[in-house]
Specification:
Elements (H helix, E strand, L loop, with lengths): L1 H21 L7 H9 L3 H4 L5 E6 L4 H14 L4 E3 L7 H10 L11 E5 L5 H4 L7 E4 L13 H9 L7 E5 L14 E6 L27 E7 L2 E5 L12 E7 L4 E5 L5 E5 L5 H17 L3 H8 L9 E6 L2 E7 L5 H12 L5 E6 L3 H6 L20 E7 L3 H10 L7 E4 L16 E6 L4 H24 L17 H4 L3
Parallel strand pairs: 1-3, 1-4, 2-3, 4-5, 5-6, 6-9, 13-17, 14-15, 14-17, 15-16
Antiparallel strand pairs: 7-8, 9-10, 10-11, 12-13
Helix pairs in contact: 1-2, 2-5, 4-8, 8-9
């Protein structure tokens, strides 16, 4: 009876997948939802690839999955992945359905799955990754993952004994996962930008994971990422198996010291610390997969960040780009704010980080705004911020509390109208900061920003030069009242 139920579920799911393809709908969860509804243990019965790499954690897991998938693919390995779909158990089921024949034979030898932290108890009993990469654990969405200790327990209590773990040694929370599992650790040695005390609002690594007394940090990178030790019981951050070192941001490279002490030079995606971690993480995962150091380095050298997450190009006489900021996630937004605030030159920003999925069903919880370090945006180099979307006025309030002068903030109701409020000063950088679930809307706003940047440059090129008294004829600029139309 169970076999009949399984094959019925597989058949229905295959039909659903075909229907979605014909009607050009995404519906990446639907086949998996139907299959698990018909056969609750579907994930355990469907054929699995021979080798499975899982990636979970609060931040960075999507980028690491993309890096691994692309690196393996460019190396000639056919990879099954859920990178274009859901990271829940239903999304993993949908990926397996796509990669399996109607006779339940897997068409792939390797799978790389992004796994939502909260979904792991519904996945691990049926699908045990050979290698599980954990990027980090922070507090996240208030309604789901607001306590990093709780999410630690969710993952830890269901870990399959056979799964090898690849953990971030610089994260005092996630590095403690899987005490009884085989483990490897990665991290980045001390950098010039490291500090002795965190300036971030959120720090969930203040106490020793063993004796629960106060930790001492040798250095801190951001939030609770750094090298810590306990003066009371002797606990300390794990030693590195894969150590990022000698980061040369100007040259776009760093070295990684391998298990045997060998140094390998890697290309970094950009100069953001979080993306440097992503490269070290992917390198370590490829080494654990079986790549040589040179193979891993060569594969990663061919890869760049997905443009839906970060881009920057020159349009007219202004640099225009986008930056994923992950609304509802104070730590991820803080990383984006920190990175942009330290870029050279003047900047204008559009903040449109509202979670559109939440907004469609009920009022988004705004408490994450007070976990996010909006204080980075008080940097004088950020000359103008346009706040927009369902939470635009909340962003404005938070910016004011962070010390951003009122005259630098403009509110506009609709996201698509935000680019019209920008000043497009020659040589400056303009960024659209957006949420994970709004790539289409963010793309439209970005495209309009790019077009306006070119138009403004053309208008300036055709404007008469100032007369001897410094007065320019034929030019106009918006008044303060027009710019700040709140």
């Amino acid at each position: 009876m169970n076999s009949i139920r399984f094959f019925a579920a597989l058949f229905v799911a295959k039909l659903a997948m075909l229907g979605l393809k014909i009607t050009r709908h995404n519906g990446t969860q639907l086949p998996g939802v139907l299959a698990i509804k018909i056969c609750p243990d579907f994930l355990g019965r469907i054929a699995h690839p021979e080798k499975i790499l899982g990636v979970t954690g609060t931040n960075g897991k999507t980028t690491v999955v993309n890096l691994l998938n692309d690196a393996l693919t460019t190396s000639g390995i056919r990879v099954l992945s859920n990178k274009m779909g859901s990271n829940l158990h239903t999304g993993v089921a949908s990926a397996l359905i796509m990669g399996t024949s109607i006779f339940n034979k897997s068409r792939y030898s390797v799978a790389v799955f992004e796994l939502d932290e909260r979904a792991t108890p519904r996945i691990f009993p049926y699908l045990a990754p050979d290698l599980l990469v954990v990027t980090n654990l922070f507090r996240d969405s208030t309604k789901r993952n607001a306590h990093s200790g709780y999410i630690f327990w969710v993952i830890d209590q269901g870990l399959p004994a056979s799964t090898k773990l690849l953990l971030n040694a610089d994260d005092v929370v996630s590095s403690q996962l899987g005490e009884h599992n085989e483990r490897r650790f990665f991290g980045i040695e001390r950098m010039p930008s490291d500090v002795e005390h965190t300036h971030n609002i959120v720090n969930d690594g203040r106490t020793c994971p063993r004796c629960h007394l106060a930790l001492t940090y040798e250095y801190m990178r951001y939030h609770h990422i750094g090298k810590a030790y306990c003066t009371h019981c002797g606990w300390h951050s794990p030693e590195y198996d894969y150590a990022g070192t000698n980061v040369r941001v100007g040259k776009g490279v760093l070295d990684v010291r391998d298990l045997d002490g060998t140094l390998t030079t890697l290309k970094i995606l950009n100069d953001g610390v979080h993306n440097i971690y992503n490269v070290v993480t992917a390198f370590a995962a490829l080494r654990e997969f079986g790549f040589t150091s040179q193979q891993a380095s060569s594969a990663l050298a061919k890869i760049s960040i997905v443009k839906s997450r970060f881009s920057q190009e020159k349009y007219g006489d202004v640099y225009v780009g986008n930056q994923l900021a992950k609304g509802l996630n104070g730590v991820a937004s803080s990383r984006a704010f920190d990175y942009i605030s330290h870029l050279p030159g003047d900047k204008e920003l559009i903040l449109m980080m509202s979670d559109l999925g939440d907004e469609a069903h009920y009022s988004e919880n705004p408490t994450w705004l007070y976990d996010a370090d909006f204080e980075y945006l008080a940097n004088p180099s950020i000359t103008h911020i346009v706040v927009t979307g369902p939470r635009g006025k909340d962003y404005r309030l938070r910016l004011l509390l962070a010390g951003v002068p009122d005259e630098r903030i403009t509110w506009v109701k609709r996201e698509i109208d935000a680019p019209e409020q920008l000043h497009f000063v020659p040589g400056e950088h303009v960024f659209v900061l957006h949420e994970v679930d709004s790539p289409v809307l963010a793309g439209k706003v970005l495209a309009k920003t790019q077009e306006l940047a070119k138009q403004k440059a053309a208008e300036r090129a055709s404007t008469p030069a100032p007369d001897s008294q410094g007065i320019t004829y034929g030019a106009s600029s918006p008044s303060t009242a027009e710019r700040n139309n709140a």
